[in-house]
């Protein structure tokens, strides 16, 4: 069986012109290769500015890679075919607060991707919105709410609902837990794990919180300065890190734990 | 001797339906040489406490306390000038959002040089002063782990990455050699090695210079690795406070237990991918505060008595306010 998502040698170069006389700054993401099966969770960890977010953007098609290809179920994703991609790979942004439009109701926010990507009739769309709201543990009445009426956890739920509404196969999330409080965070983690079990989603997420990474991910991709330093099973990486950088990460995590 | 001693601090905000108690009878003491953690979710009033201590509250908010002293001097009855003097020389605050609390129109150099007080410079001619300041500034930046100090000092706040900005804030706070540093979520959004570095720096300062630290945040892992005692806050009420190891090993308040359980790192026996325990619902907003114990509607052990606010009780150094603490049988 072919894997759900396979990324082959995807690389990306970004050049920022710094005026006429200064050298342009360059960011290079060296070729990345990995595979993800259905129902699996992959975590991307690494420093700020190591290209984690760029990789996430490349996967959802917000940026075009310089070279390489992404295959979904063995089928190559084309860069001009946005529809095929956004039906299958959806993104949850880091700041759920800023990624929701404050001027329209949540129902409209959730309705938009359906309007743009499907041929459903208004009634069917309405039903789908209600169904998705229930799926993430909210009430159908919430569709008449605006962003400011919700708490942080609910906003995160709506962000996840927006990602789920097109029945995607993969969700890519950029630091979905960073801005959340502990109790809301464990609620969200539980929600994602439940959805993954029920729907067989592939889930790729970026996080700094190694505790959560260790808890929910099957595989880890460690990045540093645009290079993939290491990748493999969570167990293996945490117990037998190969590269120096990963070792440092794991050690500082362990050091914090063992001090008490 | 307690450096900072706060008893029954109450802060009221003028809402549309009368006064709202944003902080309700907060007790907090910081001894010299202590690292105290103040833990709570966002909206629990952590930052309000920080602002109340630093005196950065709007004048139309009502603030009352039985006791709020800094080295036995009352902070509330003090005039603005004296308060500023203490805030300048003895207490330093690292505010939560570095980008918002730094001046966007001045370079980082100007802002750091400004925060170095004149008494730290050794006596020299006036033209040597500026140079001395610059040397101190570079040293401070190296201390917090910014290697490329020249480039950092030249830039404006929006030009440097978030974590550098955060480290810079810590450097400015350390500049006047304070006795107490109040760090409001200093490691937010940092990657783990940088976080460990900052925590090591703070612990080292605490050991070598006897600096007291009030560490505010909700990163339990970071907190438990460095703090000596901890105060847990929920919705403007102190829920539990005591020595770190006691609170961690045997939490008495249901909220503290829920908080500790929600961090998967603390539970080694937890099988991967199993659901984490969490409280239902979210923290109530200030407009809709429940009466009595504010955890009431979310608390798994809540009973009829919980509509009355519980008095703080204690076992040795360990204070808690709950009618049905975890070490008693559930009725």
Description:
The complex is a heterodimer of chains A (260) and B (331). In chain A, α4 packs across α5 (122-135). In chain A, the strands form two sheets. A six-stranded mixed β-sheet of chain A has the order 6-7-8-3-9-10, with helices on both faces. Chain A has a four-stranded antiparallel β-sheet with strand order 2-1-4-5, covered by helices on one side. Chain A contains ten helices and ten strands. In chain A, β7 (170-174), α7 (182-199) and β8 (202-206) form a beta-alpha-beta unit. In chain A, 40% of the residues lie in helices and 25% in strands. Chain A has 260 residues and is of the alpha/beta class. Chain A has helices at 52-60, 82-88, 96-99, 106-117, 122-135, 152-164, 182-199, 210-216, 234-239, 244-258; strands at residues 5-16, 25-36, 41-46, 67-72, 75-76, 89-92, 170-174, 202-206, 219-224, 227-233. Chain A has one domain (36-62, 79-258): Rossmann fold (3-Layer(aba) Sandwich). Chain B is an alpha/beta fold and 331 residues long. Chain B has a domain at 98-177. Chain B is 32% helix and 23% strand. Chain B has helices at 46-54, 80-89, 98-101, 108-114, 126-143, 149-154, 162-174, 192-209, 220-226, 244-249, 254-261; strands at residues 2-15, 18-31, 35-39, 62-64, 67-70, 73-74, 91-94, 180-184, 212-217, 229-234, 237-243, 313-315, 318-320. In chain B, strands 7-8-9-3-10-11-13-12 form an eight-stranded mixed β-sheet, with helices on both faces. The longest helix of chain B has 18 residues, at 126-143. Chain B starts with a strand and ends in an 11-residue tail after the last strand. The mean pLDDT of chain B is 83. At the A-B interface, α6, α7, α8 and α10 of A face α8, α9 and α10 of B. Chain B: Belongs to the ABC transporter superfamily. Chain B: Its main location: membrane. Chain B: InterPro entries: AAA+_ATPase (IPR003593), ABC_Ni/Peptide_Import (IPR050388), ABC_transporter-like_ATP-bd (IPR003439), Oligopep_ABC_C (IPR013563), P-loop_NTPase (IPR027417).
């Amino acid at each position: 069986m072919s894997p759900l998502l396979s990324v082959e040698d995807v690389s990306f170069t970004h050049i920022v012109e710094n005026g006429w006389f200064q050298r342009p700054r360059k960011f290079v993401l060296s070729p990345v290769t990995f595979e993800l099966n259905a129902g699996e969770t992959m975590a991307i960890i690494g420093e700020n500015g190591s290209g984690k977010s760029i990789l996430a953007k490349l996967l959802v098609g917000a940026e075009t890679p310089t070279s390489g290809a992404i295959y979904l179920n063995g089928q190559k994703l084309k860069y001009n075919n946005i529809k095929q991609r956004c039906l299958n790979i959806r993104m949850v942004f880091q700041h759920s607060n800023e990624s929701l439009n404050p001027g329209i109701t949540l129902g409209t926010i959730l309705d938009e991707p359906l309007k743009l990507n499907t041929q459903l009739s208004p009634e069917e769309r309405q039903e789908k919105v209600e169904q998705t709201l229930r799926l993430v543990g909210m009430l159908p009445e919430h569709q008449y709410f605006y962003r400011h009426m919700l708490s942080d956890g609910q906003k995160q739920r709506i962000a996840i609902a927006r990602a789920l509404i097109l029945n995607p196969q993969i969700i890519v999330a950029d630091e979905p837990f960073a801005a959340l409080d502990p109790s809301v965070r464990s609620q969200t983690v539980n929600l994602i794990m439940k959805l993954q079990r029920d729907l067989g989603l592939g889930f790729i997420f970026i996080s700094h919180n190694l505790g959560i990474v260790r808890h929910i991910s099957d595989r880890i991709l460690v990045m540093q300065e645009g290079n993939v330093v290491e990748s493999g099973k969570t167990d293996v990486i945490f117990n037998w890190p190969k590269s120096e950088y990963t070792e440092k990460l794991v050690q500082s995590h362990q050091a914090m734990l063992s001090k008490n | 001797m307690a450096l900072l001693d706060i008893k029954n601090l109450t802060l009221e905000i003028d809402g549309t339906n009368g006064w709202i108690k944003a902080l309700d009878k907060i007790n907090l003491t910081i001894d010299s040489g202590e690292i105290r953690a103040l833990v709570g979710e966002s909206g629990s009033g952590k930052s309000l406490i920080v602002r109340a201590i630093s005196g950065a509250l709007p004048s139309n908010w009502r603030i009352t306390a039985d006791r709020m002293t800094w080295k036995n001097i009352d902070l509330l009855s003090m005039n603005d000038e004296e308060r500023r003097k203490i805030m300048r020389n003895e207490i330093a605050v690292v505010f939560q959002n570095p980008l918002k609390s730094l001046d966007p129109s001045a370079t980082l150099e100007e802002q750091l040089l400004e925060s170095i007080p004149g008494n730290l410079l050794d006596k020299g001619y006036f033209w040597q002063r500026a140079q001395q300041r610059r040397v101190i500034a570079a040293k401070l930046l190296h201390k917090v782990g910014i290697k490329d100090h020249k480039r950092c000092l030249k830039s404006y706040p929006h030009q440097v990455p978030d974590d550098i900005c955060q480290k810079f804030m810590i450097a400015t706070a350390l500049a006047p050699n304070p006795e107490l540093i109040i760090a409001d979520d200093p490691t937010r959004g940092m990657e783990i090695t940088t976080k460990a570095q900052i925590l090591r720096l703070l612990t080292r300062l605490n050991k070598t210079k006897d600096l007291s630290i009030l560490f505010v945040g909700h990163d339990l892992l970071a907190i438990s690795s460095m703090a000596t005692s901890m105060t847990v806050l929920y919705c403007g009420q102190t829920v539990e406070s005591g020595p770190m190891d006691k609170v961690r090993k045997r939490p008495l308040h249901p909220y503290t237990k829920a908080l500790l359980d929600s961090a998967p790192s603390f539970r080694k026996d937890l099988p991967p991918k199993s659901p984490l325990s969490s409280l239902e619902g979210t923290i109530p907003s200030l407009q809709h505060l429940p009466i009595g114990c504010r955890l009431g509607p979310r608390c798994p052990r809540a009973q009829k008595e919980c509509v009355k606010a519980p008095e703080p009780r204690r076992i040795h150094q360990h204070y808690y306010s709950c009618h049905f603490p975890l070490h008693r049988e559930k009725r």
